């Protein structure tokens, strides 16, 4: 008697669940009609399902935003292409709504129904009306148009880009208002508010420039010659994108499209201060970088902030100068190093200081040249001025720096200078004992010496392991992915592309030049890949470029060759051999 009842109850429960789950947290549509609202538990999905629009919280951020993201791309976190209210987040999500009013305005309302963002279409040549509709397109463009004339656009998100430029969109210079549209980086990986880096068009020279904090121009694409920008020859290498320049009395702009419409691609002003063009590889489930500019991460202006040091020799790129510590460790964790570093021991003007040498560097920007006859005089000049933070004495005479030290890069060779820091006994001298500072000094000295030796040993080991990695199969080296990331400076210098992937230039720690080929669409398993690689190793022909090794980690498959300028790996290696046979 009881069992059937229970069974029936279960059935009802299941039925109820099925029904109540059916209107899942999305409006199964790409359109919002006048008078309708999008709620925090709903999304608009474009017709083919390429893009989604809805509320989101980036990372662990407590702030909420309205944005557009790739609906089919699944990495650890969503990839956002547009954010509506990047300057004005919503602090409380429940009862917020994105409402398309009867007058045709699209407005984001917070829980107390105060507008935090809106399209204000009142200046449009054709104002919105109760027949206005909002449609999310499969190109990632959110379009407000008149219901009776959907060809007339009242407002569109492509005219208000955040950090991403999608195919079909444009980054323009308005010749009537004399203002440039900007792609502006996120502040950090969890905060879409405007960061320090922006990309804009200079119509006079037909070139794009990257600015730091709206003022400091540190990279230019070089002028457009009709096919490429002079500093970005990569654009022609992979006949994938069609960039073109348009200009009329109202505006000048570049627009681009992709020849293969089924490719998912994006151009982003990254918070690393670099512009990046990436495509989604469905096979390996990752964003594949086609090109990056500036190529060297340390070319980005003030990347590591005041008293930070940039180095290309390993990750992370930014460190603090000796005697300094990260101003905001939390921001550094979120890939925003722009705040730089502060003194470990904050000092007042009269406190005792000493100079620490730094060699093989690119010197900080904005030196002040002084007349000083010797190194000692130069040092004295710096010592006697409280705002002096560093000096250098060399063939150019005496240079001093006042205030923040910006843009220092550690290199294999370069200049030397002296940074002013707290004297090593300053913090302990306050205790008044005369012998304690001495003892501490000796202890510290010994510790530093031992530490340096250990560091040296460790660095040698690390370097060796990068050079001649772990396991060796036959005469081939099995590199780790990280080894190759370091050797190729995170795949920054692209030599070319072929049918099986792209080739990057790299340098091993023993200065050997290598060419690293990232294979695309190679789906075979680890064991099979290794067998095939061993086979190439044994059948190398004298005319072929020598294969040094390979990397196989997760879904990543890479081949490492000796670097030979002007040789195509595809024509040499794969003429005779197909990838299947390898
Ligand atoms: C979405 O949220 C609203 C109120 O916030 C609620 O009435 C509605 O039932 C929710 N819909 C779903 C499918 O959860
Ligand atoms: C609309 O026009 C007014 C007056 O010309 C101007 O002040 C306002 O900024 C414009 N609004 C937008 C969104 O362009
Ligand atoms: C839309 O506006 C027109 C006039 O502008 C009016 O005649 C019509 O009734 C309105 N429709 C709705 C659904 O409000
Ligand atoms: C939009 O334009 C196309 C041709 O350009 C035309 O065929 C279509 O009817 C127009 N749609 C509307 C709603 O006017
Ligand atoms: C950026 O420029 C503004 C002035 O335009 C200035 O107040 C701000 O401090 C600058 N930011 C940094 C990080 O230097
Ligand atoms: C490239 O794009 C421009 C502008 O959209 C277009 O006129 C041109 O036909 C395109 N070229 C090719 C080869 O598709
Ligand atoms: C931009 O406008 C000015 C007048 O304000 C005009 O002289 C110039 O030719 C225009 N630029 C273009 C590219 O049409
Ligand atoms: C320039 O803008 C005006 C006003 O919006 C428009 O009528 C005209 O067609 C535009 N010219 C071009 C070449 O797009
Ligand atoms: C276009 O890209 C898709 C997906 O990457 C691929 O399957 C297809 O073969 C490509 N088409 C051409 C003509 O290259
Ligand atoms: C930075 O991240 C590391 C590991 O991801 C974590 O252990 C550390 O607590 C974080 N520091 C801050 C200040 O958020
Ligand atoms: C430090 O030197 C600079 C440049 O010589 C000078 O402008 C500044 O007034 C000096 N500051 C002090 C406190 O002497």
From TrEMBL:
Binding positions for ATP per the UniProt entry: 518
Every Bulb-type lectin domain range: 29-157
Any one GO molecular function term: carbohydrate binding
Top enzyme category: transferase
Gene3D superfamilies in the cross-refs: Bulb-type lectin domain, Phosphorylase Kinase, domain 1
Pfam families (UniProt xref): B_lectin (PF01453), PAN_2 (PF08276), PK_Tyr_Ser-Thr (PF07714), S_locus_glycop (PF00954)
Species this protein is from: Stephania yunnanensis
Isomerase in keyword set: no
Domain Protein kinase: 489-582
Signal peptide start-end: 1-20
Keywords annotated in UniProt: ATP-binding, Cell membrane, Disulfide bond, Glycoprotein, Kinase, Lectin, Membrane, Nucleotide-binding, Phosphoprotein, Receptor, Serine/threonine-protein kinase, Signal, Transferase, Transmembrane, Transmembrane helix
Apple domain ranges (all copies): 349-422
Record-given protein name: non-specific serine/threonine protein kinase
Domain of life of the organism encoding this protein: Eukaryota
Membrane topology, from the record: Single-pass type I membrane protein
Localization per record: Cell membrane
InterPro entries with a match to the protein in the record: Bulb-type_lectin_dom, Bulb-type_lectin_dom_sf, Kinase-like_dom_sf, Pan_app, Prot_kinase_dom, Protein_kinase_ATP_BS, S_locus_glycoprot_dom, Ser-Thr/Tyr_kinase_cat_dom
GO biological-process terms attached to the record: recognition of pollen
GO cellular component: plasma membrane
Catalysed conversion reaction: L-seryl-[protein] + ATP = O-phospho-L-seryl-[protein] + ADP + H(+); L-threonyl-[protein] + ATP = O-phospho-L-threonyl-[protein] + ADP + H(+)
Record field: transmembrane: 436-458
EC number: 2.7.11.1
